[in-house]
């Protein structure tokens, strides 16, 4: 088994396969720890963390606990919030610096038995007819590229989307072509009690702000706006642009009035997309290599780790029963696409900021609990948590 990429998707896929006694080679382009945006986690990834044996480690390390989130969002003007325990079996999750979190996951994959090679860039795939049978990759140390063969190739290359580009599978969501501009501050105020680790999301007329507290007292603050709006504003300077947006906020301005910016400004295009296929003979996609949904619900790492867990189980089955490959991978693809579809549709609903919070809750109920078996706020929290609700969609692989 070869896994391309050592972010959350790749590390969990490789780690769980190795834990199950499978031979796994993971090739990662960078040397970890490496910077990555995406610091706010959701409870849907807790089962994968537990299986990796890392749930308690995050508390031991002292990551900030996130018990819920606060919104200044929708038709009402007052901030509103939820606690995860209102709709998830997991009371809290964490806010993390991704450089450290991703390095921890990758180190754990190694501990579990995966062979991890960093600074190894996969250049191309090897095919035997239709079937993918390996990769060529270049390490920093070697003069010429090497070839490695595999029974199955997992593409967890994130927004490099190695296979989706190679097979021309990328489908962009034109209504979610955003750009993000962000930096880090210290000296911010936090909410009291179990709201201190909340992600705060504040609405602005042409975009929204994230406010993510981290364990060392730093807060990640970013602005997301449609690319068209950004072009219209045509800022000379991304830093001045971000500061201007911050002055337009109410809640974030209040919390940052004595704060000091402690690092430079970064920008990234965060266009949402989905591959038209997630699998084929000898290969499967996972995490951002398969799809990226707008950061509004902080769902990226959760989706990546949930899918990775299911893919690892599925591939274990495929290795034991090669004849089941098509059936197992088709089922993985179907579940994953349905799950993504629900999150994506809900993000679209959530972007309609003319609604009252109760209307978002009702929409969540329509999406995951159509018979209204539970209270609609419970359904909202379940969905935001990256869990599914009354009908678990990412069901265990159970194909003979
Ligand atoms: C602005 C913004 C804000 C976000 N905020 C959040 C948030 O708050 N919470 C959240 O959960 N998600 C958030 N996300 C999304 C989240 O960052 C991603 O969904 C997540 O990192 C996906 O994990 P992954 O393992 O699929 O990909 P990645 O974490 O990107 O890992 C892919 C890895 O593959 C490696 N790689 C790439 N190409 C090759 C190659 N050819 N050979 C070898 N290695 C290769 C890369 O070096 C990288 O380490 C945000 C995204 C954006 C853009």
Radius of gyration: 21 Å
CATH superfamily caption of the largest domain: FAD/NAD(P)-binding domain
Nearest-integer average pLDDT: 95
**Percentage of residues in DSSP E strands:** 25-35%
Low-confidence stretches: none
CATH class of the largest domain: Alpha Beta
Bound molecules: flavin-adenine dinucleotide
Can you give the helix content as a percent range? 25-40%
Tally of individual domains: 2
Task: Describe the protein's architecture and organization.
This protein has 400 residues and is of the alpha+beta class. The chain has helices at 8-19, 46-52, 55-61, 98-111, 162-166, 227-233, 238-247, 251-255, 300-320, 325-351, 357-368, 376-384; strands at 2-4, 25-28, 64-66, 68-72, 80-83, 93-95, 115-118, 120-128, 131-139, 146-149, 153-155, 170-172, 178-186, 199-204, 207-213, 218-226, 260-261, 266-269, 273-275, 279-280, 283-285, 291-292. Strands 4, 5, 13, 14, 15, 16, 17 and 18 form an 8-stranded mixed β-sheet that branches. A 6-stranded mixed β-sheet has the order 7-2-1-11-21-20. It has a 3-stranded antiparallel β-sheet with strand order 8-9-10, with no helix packed on it. α9 (300-320) packs antiparallel against α10 (325-351) and α11 crosses α12. The two termini are 21 Å apart. Bound molecules: flavin-adenine dinucleotide. Flavin-adenine dinucleotide binds at residues 4-10, 27-30, 36-41, 121-122, 156-160, 162, 180, 268, 270, 287-289, 292, 295, 298-302, 304.
């Amino acid at each position: 088994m070869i896994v391309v990429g050592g972010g959350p998707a790749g590390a969990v896929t490789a780690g769980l396969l190795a834990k199950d006694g499978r031979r796994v080679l993971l090739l990662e382009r960078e040397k970890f720890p490496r910077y990555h945006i995406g610091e706010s986690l959701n409870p849907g990834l807790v089962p994968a963390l537990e299986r990796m044996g890392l749930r308690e480690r995050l508390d031991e390390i002292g990551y900030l606990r996130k018990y819920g989130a606060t919104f200044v969002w929708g038709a009402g003007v007052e901030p509103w919030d939820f606690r995860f325990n209102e709709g998830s079996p997991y009371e809290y999750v964490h806010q993390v610096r991704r450089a450290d979190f991703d390095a921890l996951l990758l180190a754990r994959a190694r501990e579990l038995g995966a062979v991890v090679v960093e600074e190894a860039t996969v250049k191309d795939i090897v095919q035997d007819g239709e079937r993918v049978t390996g990769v060529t990759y270049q390490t920093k140390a070697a003069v010429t590229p090497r070839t490695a063969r595999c029974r199955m190739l997992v593409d967890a290359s994130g927004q490099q989307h190695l296979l989706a580009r190679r097979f021309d599978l990328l489908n962009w969501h034109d209504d979610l072509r955003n750009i993000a501009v962000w930096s880090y501050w210290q000296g911010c105020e936090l909410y009291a009690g179990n709201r201190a680790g909340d992600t705060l999301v504040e609405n602005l007329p042409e975009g929204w702000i994230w406010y993510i507290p981290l364990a060392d007292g730093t807060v990640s603050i970013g602005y997301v706006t449609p690319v068209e709006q950004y072009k219209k504003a045509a800022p000379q300077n991304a830093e001045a642009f971000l500061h201007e947006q911050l002055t337009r906020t109410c809640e974030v301005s209040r919390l940052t009035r004595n704060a000091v910016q402690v690092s430079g400004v970064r920008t990234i295009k965060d266009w949402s997309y989905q591959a038209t296929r997630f699998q084929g003979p000898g290969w499967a996609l996972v995490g951002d290599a398969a799809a990226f949904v707008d950061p509004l619900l902080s769902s990226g790492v959760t989706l990546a780790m949930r899918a990775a867990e299911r893919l690892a189980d599925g591939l274990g089955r495929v290795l034991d029963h090669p004849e089941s490959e098509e059936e197992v991978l088709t089922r993985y693809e179907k579940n994953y696409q349905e799950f993504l579809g629900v999150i994506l549709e809900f993000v679209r609903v959530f972007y309609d900021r003319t609604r009252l919070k109760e209307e978002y809750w009702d929409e969540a109920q329509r999406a995951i609990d159509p018979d209204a078996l539970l209270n609609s706020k419970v359904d909202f929290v379940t969905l935001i948590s990256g869990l599914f609700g009354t009908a678990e969609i990412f069901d265990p692989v159970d194909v003979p």
